Q: What sequence folds into this?
């Protein structure tokens, strides 16, 4: 006999994931939303049947696999990009490809394909899935297959492995309107002399550690400081505050060089909105009028509480809405080119 129960499980504690699994294993069904954050998307049943590109071939989702000897799996040796398909246009594509090639150069990974070939592979994957709008595309490039588990790149026996995963993804409007909460992690953003924070690589363990701290503290995502104690970024997004009609973000020395971050700075300057990239601390954050984060998937997402402190009026503020509107206009311009 199968019993149905309704259990409210706090998303603030990842240990509840084990509880969810255990209950499912025993035959119970749980109705809940495990995720709230900037990557919260609306479920789309079409994603069950997507085709995924792996090294020149297309595979159904359940058949898409790669060897355990892949460099990315073994030691996180790879770079990646994520981009959005809006109304048949991969917006800001050149900026994403610039960052991908810069990342590959930074880790000394020779790509055996050019930009045109990668673009063709992306479009072939999208066309095979009949995708035109509201699609999130993740492109992952690892150094290749190893002949034995090792860090040594000289033991790589193939060219780079390329995986392209397109999914129908629309960000949750509820998250946008409600806003997210942050917790300041004790995990710092690193110095450029050992793992440059601008590198969009597969090695994301320190961001995962920061996020786990935030989840355990009951927040949605983590705010991270740089090595000097100034506010840097979030675990998966870039961070901004608004104070006295001025927008502030970090210097960029210790954070991901976000495409959306750069576009927000751009639209502020083009619309005569004061926007500074400078050092500031939690002292400034707690007293901010508004705060928001940026990322390719969610665009702009308001932040309503940090470390238990309500930011401003604790809601999606008018100034952030104005900047969001300007950013959406920029996307429309990109589509109409």
A:
């Amino acid at each position: 006999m199968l019993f149905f129960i309704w259990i409210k499980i706090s998303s603030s504690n990842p240990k509840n994931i084990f509880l969810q699994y255990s209950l499912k294993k025993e035959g119970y069904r749980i109705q809940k939303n495990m995720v709230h954050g900037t990557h919260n998307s609306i479920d789309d049943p079409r994603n069950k049947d997507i085709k995924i590109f792996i090294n020149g071939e297309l595979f159904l989702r359940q058949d898409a696999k790669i060897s355990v000897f892949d460099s990315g799996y073994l030691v996180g040796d790879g770079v990646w990009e994520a981009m959005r398909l809006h109304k048949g246009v991969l917006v800001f594509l050149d900026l994403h490809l610039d960052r991908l090639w810069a990342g590959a150069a930074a880790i000394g990974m020779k790509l055996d394909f050019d930009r045109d070939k990668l673009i063709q592979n992306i479009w072939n994957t999208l066309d095979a899935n009949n995708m035109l709008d509201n699609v999130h595309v993740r492109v992952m490039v690892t150094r290749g297959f190893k002949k034995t588990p090792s860090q040594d790149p000289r033991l790589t026996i193939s060219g780079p492995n390329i995986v392209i995963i397109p999914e129908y993804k629309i960000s949750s409007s509820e998250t946008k309107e409600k806003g997210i909460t942050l917790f300041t992690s004790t995990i710092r953003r690193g110095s450029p002399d050992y793992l440059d924070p601008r590198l969009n690589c597969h090695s994301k363990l320190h961001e995962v550690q920061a996020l786990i701290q935030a989840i355990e503290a009951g927040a949605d995502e983590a705010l991270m400081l740089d090595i000097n104690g100034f506010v840097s970024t979030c675990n998966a997004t870039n961070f901004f505050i608004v104070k006295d009609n001025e927008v502030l973000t970090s210097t960029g020395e210790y954070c991901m060089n976000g495409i959306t971050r750069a576009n927000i700075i751009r639209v502020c300057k083009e619309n005569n909105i004061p926007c500074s990239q400078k050092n500031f601390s939690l002292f400034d954050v707690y007293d901010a009028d508004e705060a928001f984060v940026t990322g390719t998937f969610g665009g702009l997402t308001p932040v309503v509480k940090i470390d238990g402190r309500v930011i401003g009026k604790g809601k999606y503020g008018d100034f952030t809405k104005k900047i969001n509107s300007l950013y959406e206009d920029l996307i429309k311009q990109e589509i109409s080119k």
